[in-house]
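Thread amino acids onto this structure.
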């Protein structure tokens, strides 16, 4: 089941008394973030007196009916979450937002990321009497915030104190009956942006979600920053000095939508640049360039523009087929790849093809794709990958599996080429990742490629 890198979670929140239909806006925001998680989704709202929540397993389009959204109206704060499980199993109990009742009131929390000290914190809390209803690290965060709120002067102090106890990568949206708080981990591993819609403030994992509701992009939340929205306005606190930035490089390679900007960098332009770099690093005489949908397409266009070899649409993608990794057997996963992605024979027949994809995990899916291209009549298939080889697992919320499931950990590039049936194979060089995002400094996390982890 680990033959592709799986999505993270998507979070969205809005605070504003002057804006109507907040649940519908969250719905549109979550719809734009559907690519970040397709297991479950939820929306929680507050009208100042109580917090209501609706969540379920399934896609955004499946979980929310007009009646459900109408039942959540009459609110001035609303938050939402799309989940892909990097920690905890895929069951309804683990769906977010998590709503917690405690002595000072009620909290709802949405979380994207992964805590590397979750087991340690959970063991400590359980020894003090805590009882957990889920298996997700998000509940550990919720429990810490609620407990610290009992002794803190305000919610933002409780959130700040909690953040100082957490290790790993995380972006949070916390809602009480009166406040919305957005926070980003001290290294900025997980993305979080802020926008404005009329008199309301909007927070989301990606800027494309702001666009979907007509909100104006204001800025990225800074690493380690906490932004508070309440009746007194909007304010920001930074509980500790900045310890640098280590934004996830794979957001630019694969996770984020092409129309998003993260920390001032265009995802689309980064992928074009990756393709151009591949063309310089691994030139080959061929007739056409094609990209594996979706994230391989932009890199393929970049390769084409740099090399002068024409880009053509090489695949037809069926958007109604579920992700291949959820199929229960390898045979069924192979069938699902063929149903989901079909080569366009008229485009590739008799052609020497350069095929661009974003990554190789185990190699079975890309081997199937190469085989289908040959069956469709391609005379040569040259594979180019717009990321370096995966050599190490991720512990911060990206589902890069353990090294025993990573093909590059056990085989040379030429061995992988033979295994996937390609005529040639080239990975983006790790040292060119800076060039890909157009930055001179190494302010990103590339631990899955290099093993250089920015946090414990």
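Threaded sequence (456 positions):
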């Amino acid at each position: 089941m680990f033959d592709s890198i799986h999505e993270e979670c998507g979070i969205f929140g809005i605070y504003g008394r002057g804006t109507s239909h907040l649940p519908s806006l969250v719905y549109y925001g979550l719809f734009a973030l559907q690519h970040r998680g397709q297991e479950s989704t939820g929306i929680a709202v507050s009208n100042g007196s109580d917090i209501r929540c609706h969540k379920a397993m399934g896609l955004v389009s499946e979980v929310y009916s007009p009646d459900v959204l109408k039942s959540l109206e009459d609110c001035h704060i609303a938050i939402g979450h799309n989940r892909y499980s990097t920690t905890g199993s895929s069951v309804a109990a683990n769906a977010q937002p998590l709503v917690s009742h405690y002595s000072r009131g009620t909290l709802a929390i949405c979380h994207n990321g992964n805590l590397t000290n979750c087991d340690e914190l959970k063991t400590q809390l359980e020894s003090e009497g805590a009882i957990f209803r889920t298996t997700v690290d998000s509940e550990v965060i919720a429990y810490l915030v609620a407990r610290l709120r009992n002794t803190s002067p305000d919610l933002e102090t409780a959130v700040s104190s909690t953040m100082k106890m957490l290790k790993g990568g995380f972006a949070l949206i916390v809602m009480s009956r009166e406040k919305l708080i957005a926070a980003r981990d001290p290294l900025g591993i997980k993305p979080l942006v802020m926008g404005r819609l009329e008199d309301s403030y909007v927070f989301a994992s990606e800027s494309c979600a702001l666009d979907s509701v007509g909100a104006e992009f204001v800025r990225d939340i800074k690493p380690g920053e906490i932004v508070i929205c309440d009746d007194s306005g909007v304010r920001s606190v930074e509980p500790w000095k900045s310890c640098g930035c280590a934004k996830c490089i794979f957001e630019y390679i694969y996770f984020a939508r092409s129309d998003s900007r993260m920390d001032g960098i265009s995802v689309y332009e980064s992928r074009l640049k990756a393709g151009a770099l591949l063309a310089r690093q691994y030139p080959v005489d061929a007739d056409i360039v094609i990209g594996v949908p979706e994230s391989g397409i932009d890199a393929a266009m970049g390769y084409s523009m740099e090399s002068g070899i024409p880009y053509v649409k090489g695949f037809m993608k069926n958007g109604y087929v579920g992700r291949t990794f959820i199929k229960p057997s390898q045979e069924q996963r192979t069938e699902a790849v063929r149903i989901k992605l079909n080569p366009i024979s008229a485009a590739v027949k008799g052609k020497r093809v350069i095929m661009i994809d974003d990554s190789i995990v185990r190699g079975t899916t890309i081997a199937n794709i190469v085989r289908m291209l040959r069956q469709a009549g391609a005379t040569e298939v040259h594979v180019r990958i717009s990321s370096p080889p995966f050599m190490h697992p991720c512990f911060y919320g990206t589902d890069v599996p353990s090294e025993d499931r990573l093909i590059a950990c056990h085989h040379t590039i030429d061995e992988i080429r033979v295994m996937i049936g390609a005529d040639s194979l080239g990975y983006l060089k790790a040292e060119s990742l800076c060039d890909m995002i157009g930055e001179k400094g190494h302010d990103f996390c590339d631990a899955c490629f290099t093993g250089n982890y920015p946090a414990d």
